[in-house]
Design brief:
alpha+beta, 8 helices, single chain
């Protein structure tokens, strides 16, 4: 064979293999495309689908019956009860008790029997909750002012033994009419003249001859106990303590104090000014007068309280 023939033979052989390969490739692609487009889903069939392994093709086997919730218990024969001898009426035993004791019931109780066989419990009386005692509150009034003391206590006794009017520690009037000096009263402690001398230590006669006035330097040095003495003297002389001079042209808010009462001794601790009336000199007077009183506490712990003093 010539070189041309050999080359032509190789070309024909290559073309034959290429045609055979393309034919098989197209056949395989056609099969895959058919399976992809014409696949039957199991969900398209109605009813259950049984997959039988190792069984010959034929009619589908019936499904096993669904398990029932009701459990059948085979009835056992009831043993015969021997005849019991006649028992005198004085010692008669109910037949029902014998049957119920000797012949156990093997039947499963129905829902109605189970419900009826349960004992009916009587409604229990509600347990009363412990009543929390109300807070101890002490109220009072003095010379046109009102006060209130509240203790946060759950048990025991707490209260006040001695109360001194707080109004007696308030600032004294700057101007004093002459009639109050002339109307001073004596008592078992001092005569009228002695009280007058005490009063004139603090008050000076006005240069205009229209009464007496309290010097500022003297007023600043006065103690609360000295104020108390002068107020008692003026009250006996007819001065109206419900309308004192320190209330003139003033809007006074209630003074609020917080405190604690020590158990046993009744001493006051942790006394703090919670709310001011708006004037520090009146706040200090209320604070001093409150601490001058005496309290008691029969409990085993500190009792907290709140004190409110209102100017009316």
């Amino acid at each position: 064979m010539t070189a041309y023939q050999i080359a032509w033979q190789k070309k024909r052989t290559f073309n034959s293999f290429l045609a055979a390969f393309l034919l098989h490739f197209l056949l395989i692609c056609g099969i895959l495309l058919y399976n992809l487009l014409f696949t039957e889903e199991l969900e398209d069939f109605s009813g259950p689908v049984l997959v039988k392994l190792g069984e010959p093709a034929g009619i589908d086997l019936p499904l096993p019956p669904e398990p029932s919730d009701i459990i059948e218990v085979p009835e056992e024969p009831v043993p015969e009860v021997p005849e019991t001898p006649v028992i005198p009426e004085t010692a008669s035993i109910p037949t029902e008790s014998l049957v119920s004791e000797d012949i156990p019931d093997k039947r499963p109780p129905s829902e109605s029997e189970t419900t009826s066989s349960q004992p009916v419990l009587a409604a229990a009386d509600p347990v009363p909750l412990p009543v929390k005692p109300e807070a101890v509150k002490i109220e009072g009034s003095e010379n046109g002012n009102a006060h209130e003391t509240v203790f946060s206590i759950e048990e025991g006794n707490v209260g006040r033994n001695v109360w001194i009017p707080i109004s007696l520690f308030m600032p004294l009037p700057v101007n004093l009419e002459e009639r109050y000096v002339h109307n001073l009263k004596g008592d078992a402690l001092n005569t009228v003249e002695e009280y007058k001398q005490i009063l004139l230590r603090y008050y000076k006669e006005s240069p205009l001859g229209s009464g007496y006035y309290l010097e500022t330097s003297v007023s600043d040095r006065m103690s609360y106990e000295e104020r108390r003495t002068i107020w008692v003297m003026l009250e006996k002389a007819g001065y109206d303590l419900s309308h004192p001079e320190y209330k003139d042209n003033r809007t006074l808010r209630p003074v609020v104090l917080s405190f604690s009462v020590v158990p046993g001794t009744g001493l006051l601790e942790e006394v703090h000014l919670e709310r001011s009336c708006g004037y520090s000199d009146l706040d200090d007077a209320v604070l001093y007068g409150f601490e001058a009183s005496q309290y008691y506490n029969s409990t085993a712990r500190k009792i907290k309280g709140r004190f409110t003093y209102r100017f009316e």
